């Protein structure tokens, strides 16, 4: 009887049927379930974590809760795919810009120098073309 009174005090004075044996009562105490969630890390929780917590608090019906959590999971996958597509498009544009800059530098670096001067002969021009690439620079 003292065993049951101790556990009754743990349950905030809820009256206990004293006909239960201590082993049966212990089984009932073990079946109590405590659920909690903890987010680790700095910063703000992402929208999908907030939505999942809201669904778990709002909907007590397990069927509706399961459907809503499945919908959030589906939305999260679509959101991640969209972010990946957006980032890949951004990377592609950066690569094209970098290639254009490299092509421009290559044209400036390896383009021949071209100069024209008036010639001694009337109506003709003297042209001079210099190649900036030296023989030593070639692979």
Chart the SSEs and their pairings.
Elements: H1 2-10, H2 22-30, H3 47-58, H4 62-110, E1 113-118, E2 125-130
Antiparallel strand pairs: 1-2
Q: Any key phrases for this structure?
A:
mainly alpha, two-stranded antiparallel ribbon, 57% helix, 139 residues
Structural write-up:
- 57% of the residues lie in helices and 9% in strands.
- It is mostly helical.
- It folds into two domains: 1-34, no CATH class; 45-115.
- It is rod-shaped.
Outline:
The protein has helices at 2-10, 22-30, 47-58, 62-110, and strands spanning 113-118, 125-130. With 139 residues, the chain is mainly alpha-helical.
- Name the helicity range: 55-70%
Tally of helical segments: 4
Radius of gyration: 39 Å
**Class derived from helix and strand content:** mainly alpha
Which consecutive residue ranges, at least 5 long each, have pLDDT under 50? none
Tell me, rounded to a whole number, the average pLDDT.
80
* Apparent shape: rod-shaped
Tell how many strands the DSSP assignment holds.
2
List the strand order in the largest sheet.
1-2
Order of helices and strands: HHHHEE
Largest sheet: 2 strands, antiparallel
Strand content bin:
5-15%
Distance between the termini: 96 Å
Domains (count): 2
